Amino acid sequence: MTRSGSLRRSTAALQRDGVIGWRVRQTAFQRRQGLATFSAITAAGAGAYSVRDADADEGLAFVREAVPGLLEPFVERGDPVAAR
Fold first, then answer.
1. In Å, how far from its chain's centre is CA 55?
2. Is 66 helix (H, G, I), strand (E, B) or coil?
3. Where is the YdbS-like PH domain (predicted)?
């Protein structure tokens, strides 16, 4: 579930089987703080739903749990997320 907006709030809840991919982006400022933006890519609705400024390690663990096997080709050895 993602929420966004400060004045006009919106909430999106996705089913796991509706997510066809993930985009993980990190600015230089986010990297310094250990944060990242995670976007769930879907074939329906808005096409992508983003969670901004999420803890990078927690976000990667969530992505791995939500769509098993998707990140394994991209995880470096010694990565703390890979050990979970």
1. 10
2. helix
3. 2-61
- Taking Cα atoms as reference points, which of 33, 19, 32, 27 lies closest to residue 63? 19
DSSP class per residue in 6-65: SSS-EEE---GGGEEEEEEE--HHHHHHTEEEEEEEESSTTSEEEEEEEEHHHHHHHHHH
Burial of 28 (0-12, 13-18, 19+ CB in 10 A): exposed
CA atoms within a 13 Å half-sphere pointing along the CA-CB vector of 36: 17
Residue type, 43: A
Residue type, 49: Y
Q: Which residues of the chain have pLDDT under 50?
A: 81-84
